[in-house]
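User: Can you predict the 3D structure for this chain?
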Amino acid sequence: MWSEHAIGLVFLSCVVGLAISFTGWHCRALVTATCYTVLGVANKMFTVLANMLIWDQHASRTGVLWLMVCLAGATTYQQAPLRVSEEQEQRAKISLLKEGDATEMASDEERPPTR
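Assistant: Here is the predicted structure, written as structure tokens:
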């Protein structure tokens, strides 16, 4: 029913699929979420380009245009700055003041006594 060649190809595709999955997880651990998303979008772009070059049935010009818009949006995306509450801002100021006092005290101890 199944030839040895077909079984070998199915097994090979499973191994390649597993390798792609582990590579993706490893890549995700090395880069930011935004970078990983842009990488994924670029991968989709490459896939569509390869499809257009190899086969006759592919995305329409409108589809490719919108893909370019998505790619441009993903490329220019950046994380919005986190909002800091007034309480957190006050704590940060107090912490900086305490650090400044500790630094000032340490530098006073290092100075030789004046006569």
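Residues 4-30 form the longest helix (27 residues). The mean pLDDT is 79.
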